[in-house]
Each structure stands twice: as structure tokens, then as C-alpha cells.
Amino acid sequence: MNAHAAISSDRKRGLILPREQGAGSLDLVIGVMAFLAALALGGVLIANRSAVTWQAGLAGHLTVQILPEGDAPPQNEVDAAVGVLRATPGVVYAAPLSDAANLALVEPWLGRDAVIASLPFPRLIDVQLAPGATPDVAALDKRLKAAAPHAVLDDHGRWIERLKRTANSVVLSALAILLLIAIGTAATVAFATRAGLATHREIVQLLHLMGARDRFIASAFERHYFLAALIAGTCGAALAAIVFLAAGGLDEFGLSSVSFLPPLGLSVRELLWLGLIPLAAAVIAWGTARSSVMAALRELY
Amino acid sequence: MVRFENVGMRYGAGPEVLRDVTFALDPGSFTFLTGASGAGKSTLLKLVFLAEKPSRGLISLFGRDLAKLDRADLPSIRRRVGVVFQEFRLLDHLSAFDNVALPLRLAGVRPGEYIRDVEELLSWVGLGTKLHAKPPTLSGGEQQRVAIARAVVAKPDLLLADEPTGNVDPDMGERLIRLFVELNRFGTTVMIATHDRALIESTKAREMRLIDGRLIEMRSVHA
Lengths: 301, 223
Description:
The structure holds 2 protein chains of 2 kinds. Chain A has helices spanning 3-13, 24-58, 75-86, 99-110, 114-117, 137-147, 157-199, 201-209, 214-252, 268-273, 276-298; strands at 61-66, 91-96, 123-129, 151-154. Chain A is of the alpha+beta class. Chain A folds into 2 domains: 20-55 and 160-298, no CATH class; 60-155, Alpha-Beta Plaits, CATH 3.30.70. In chain A, helix 2 (24-58) crosses helix 9 and helix 9 (214-252) runs antiparallel to helix 11. In chain B, 43% of the residues are buried. By secondary structure, chain B is α/β, with parallel strands linked by helices. In chain B, helix 3 packs across helix 4 and helix 3 (96-106) runs parallel beside helix 5. At the A-B interface, helix 1 and helix 8 of A face helix 2, helix 3 and helix 4 of B.
């Protein structure tokens, strides 16, 4: 190896600061933070996707119940209600559910039993609206009541509202977790930077005395912590991506243990969002290292 | 170039290390600073290379009153001063070459413009075969020569050296003093703190002596 080759390779590395001993623990902490942040971000994506899916499933639909009078709902009221609904502008489909479909709805809770069929169930009328149609629900309810006194109109508004609230609170909780993780990461990097400054105090003072500007010295620390956070953040986010892929695999094979929960896997497109985690970790580490070092340098003459 | 007026210096609540120190270094001058250990030589040098602020008095460097300077102006002033520290203060993780090149790198000089100069300088101080040796593998004398090369490589306007020949044999000491004299001939103002009488007597330079923190003119040189 000739002198020039050795010198230029040293320079390419630009290592004004030596590699830190014991920096692995900082990398581990940032990796764990990134893993948790990626899980929280995945939670946001799943909550959002579920809310959209649920709302899309319910929007554009109305349900009318004809409550039973005695053993069964009166058939004439069912027919009258269907007639009112079909005459309503914006309604493209209105038909009562068959007895078999009615029983299929309660089967998960009550089971399949001959006795069940004899219970006084309400008759359900499924109503589909034209895309974008917004019928006057109160007026329709009034007309239905006039034609069929046992009719109850449900536009799923309360259910949709609850879903929205639940999804919003999941998203807000996850964002709060992300914020806490960001603060934790910044505090960890600030602590590590101060420790790094103490370790390299002699080098920092020498560079300062030789006329290095604060920005030059700070850039050496910034680069170090930016790269460390980028690598550790990538590892943490990749681990979280593996967890979501595994959860997606369980969904695929129908192995999810809790059937009422939405699918816990992420699509490839959603997984790409996790790529923001290492970038955010690197930017937080860079900014924290810069402000910590600049503050410490300002104390020097 | 350098002007001290009634400068006093104490560390914390301790006794005054320097008392009413007044002197001036003219541009292109060569001065020895002598005195017993603990007389305040290193402290005086620290005040000149802006490692410490005086407790009282006025210091001006390159015609500028340091008390009136903004902190952001100090790096460019520091880059005009080359310093040979008594304890060398080399960066152990960098090679001899990269240690010497450091002032040029800080000044924003591109590597292609200084590789040859740095190699020549290291060869001149007898370290041409140890360009990429790390300081811990060098002897005390070799480290001292790297420190000297680093101090002079950027051709500073002012060169300060604290016991620069303390760890080298007489021949190398003579060679190094020739380097300082040569630099001085090209316009660099030189101030050397030393105990080495042979070194002082080898030139007819001015000598200032510190005794108990007070500065006494021992030998003046008038052009």
C-alpha cells in the first residue's frame, strides 16, 4: 500500500473523531425505539384502513326493521314499507331479507336450532342507495311510520360515528406514542452526544484552538449520530415489518385468534410507510446532536 | 502583532499567575520566553493563542483588541497562529500525515493541494518513512516533530512553541530551530518558551524572562 493510497482512504472516511467505544448500546436503544415507533405507525395504518373499510361497507346502506306484533311482523307492513322505500328518490334497491338470511345473521350468537326459528324476530329490509344519494332520513322515517307503524329506520349513523371515534382515538394514541418515542430518542441522543463530547473533549478543544469553526466540529458529531440512527432505525423498522408480515401470514391462513379484530398484517404499500421511521430517527439524532454540540461549544472561549 | 498591557491572570480564586505583564511582539520578530517552571510561561502562551481569557488588562492580536471581538471572529484569528504544545496534543487516531494536514483541512484547503507539501515537511523533520504511523507508535521525539510540522505547515503569521526541543537530541534540536529561523525569515513572528540555554544562545534573538509572574526584558534586539 503506498502512502497516497493510505492517506486518501483516511481522508475519504473524514474521521476527525475516532469510532466510539461502547456505541453499541446507543444503537440498540435507537433500534428498539424505531421498532416500537414502527409498531405504533403500523397501528395507525391498520386503524385507518379498518375505519375506511367499515365506513365504506355501511355507507350507502339503510336498514329498516319491521318489529314483530305477536309472533311475527305483519306482512302487510313489510310490503307497505318496501313500497315506500322503492318510491323514495335515491333508493336503488329495497327488499326484505329471507327467513334463511335472517337466521344466518343470528346464528353466530344463538346457534342453529329449530326453536330459534320460532322466535319472534323482526323482519329486516335491506336498502341500497345510489352512490352519493343523501335521502332525508327524518322525512323517510315519518313516511315509513305512516305506512308501517312497526317500522324502525336505521341509517347506521350512530355506528359509523362510533367507528370514527374509535379509529380516531386509536390514531391519536398511536401518534402520542410516536411523539413520546421521538422525545425519548432525542433525549437518548442528547445524553450520548454529551458523553461523546466528554470522551472526545481533548480532540474538541484542540480543534477549537486550531481555529475550527463550531459548525465543523458539530458536523463530525452530527454525521456520526445521523448514520448510527439511520442504521439502527432501519434494523428496528425492518424487524417491525417482519412482525407485520408474519401477522399478515396468520390472517391469510385464517389463524388470527380474535375474529372481530381487523387484519393485523400490512400490505406492501403500507409497509413502505415504515421507511419513514429510520429517516425520522436519523433526522432527530442529527438535530439533537447538532444542538447539543453547538450548545457545549458556545461555552468555550 | 501581539500587545499585552498590564495583563493579569489567575485561575479561579487562586493567586495571580501573571502580574502586570506588558510587552509587544513586532511583526517578523523572534523572541524567547524563559523562566523557571511554574513562572507562568505556558499561561502567557495560552493567553496569546486564545485558550484563556485574561483576568485583567488588555491583549491585542494582529491589531485587534480581543475584548472587543465577537466570538465568531476568533476561529479566523486562531488559524493565523501555529502552536507547538508542550504535551504535543496529537490526535492518536489519525496518522502523522493527517495530523500535520489538519490545519490545512480546517482552513478548507483541498487535499490535492497539500499532499506534496505535507509529505515534504514530514520528510524534512525526518519522518518521511512514517507518514501513516499513528502517534502512539512514535517515540516522544518523533511526536514532537509531528507537532512542530503541524504548527508550521500552514505558514502561520505567528508561531508559538512551548519547549519545542525538549524531547529531541541536540542535532535534531538544531535542525528544528533552523526551521523556526527559516519561517521567521519569511515573515512569521516566532515566540518560543524554553529552558534550553544552548538554544537561546544559538541565536541573537530577544529574550523575555518571567519571574514569579512578572515579565522582565533580558535581551532586546533592535533591527
